[in-house]
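Obj: model holo form, ligand = magnesium ion.
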Amino acid sequence: MKVFLIGLGRAGCRITHQFFEAGLHNVEGVLVDTDLADLGHLKYRYRIPAGEALIDGEGTQRDLSLGMEVIQADRYGIIEKMTRVKGDADCIFLISALGGGTGGAAGILLEEMKKNFIEPLYYVGVLPCEEDLSVVTINAARALKETIRHCDAFFPIDMDHLKQSTRIKGNYRGINRLIYTYFERVFRIGEFSGRGDIGENAVDFSDFAKTLKGLSVVGLKGQDLLLNPEIDKPEAVIDLTKAASKMTTLQVELGDVQSALVTVLGDRDHIDFLGSIPARLWVEKNIGGREVRGGDMPLSRRGNVEVLLIFSGVKRSEEMAGLYKKVELLGKAQQMDETITEVIDRIGGMRRTLNELEREMDETYQKLKGKVEKKE
Ligand SMILES: Nc1nc2c(ncn2[C@@H]2O[C@H](COP(=O)(O)OP(=O)(O)OP(=O)(O)O)[C@@H](O)[C@H]2O)c(=O)[nH]1
Ligand SMILES: [Mg+2]
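Output (holo structure tokens):
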């Protein structure tokens, strides 16, 4: 597939930059950030600084309201620059961290992109991790609804689930590499139609686009079958499929998955004539929905076989439910804030009335006192 890829904010730009650095022929795009130093570290032609008129190039420092203000103010300029870079594309992917002051403003950009571009619009959002400060979680909870509303499918990235080391901070490079690996495979979909042996069963972009709606996850697991030549191939593919269904960008219950795209990557000798069929059958049996598409894709490293799963229309996820709950609580807190302000206002009003009453009473008292004194 031909992808127009946009990175927004530090995390978004760092993840996205890997695709540009790799020089993938089917991926082009832009990097957008309010932090000029961060943007300057990434060598790439199409960098778009944002918010120069409002802030001094130092990012928003996790201030989501400021990020939203800046992206709102600069949105036409950003879209115009995007339009200059964007050629033909099958779809658009925007990547950012939901909890960043800049990345959390993704919804505004998605909304504007939806108005200007006809391609399907997908959002990859890095969720706050356990090591993040609470302001990041609050931002993400605030940003969530607006971002989801303006894209055709949403891929949340749960770093706590993906992480391979014990800590995330200080290991972003490793996490970013992993995210790259998952989506680099995804972006290969549709790149091989009609060529060679595998071409006949190759998955194409329309399989991908039809599968995607709403909450979506990617799962991937590979194995070098040359290490074990005696292995039963269909069984190995099923084992990889099971493993891939757990090694996902966000943990989900298979019963909550409505649609799936199953791709087996490998060379002809190693995925044998059955190709993705065992994997598809396994997925069909185990997911809640009935919509399963699939096919094969060539992989240049001989002997290596990978199963790539895309689960979509996911009905619920614990991680997302937690964030939603925070959105609700925030909503309530805001309402509480409003009620409290109202009460304080009223108390203020009452105090004014009381003061007036006191003054009046004092005046009356003074008058009475005067009269009494006169009589005496
Ligand atoms: N995967 C990944 N996550 C990152 C990286 N850098 C920061 N994060 C996460 O991203 C969130 C913070 O968002 P940033 O992208 O740093 O913020 P921003 O969008 O630049 O917004 P500002 O607040 O304006 O700087 C937190 O959840 C961090 O854990 C990175 O390189 N990779
Ligand atoms: Mg930043």
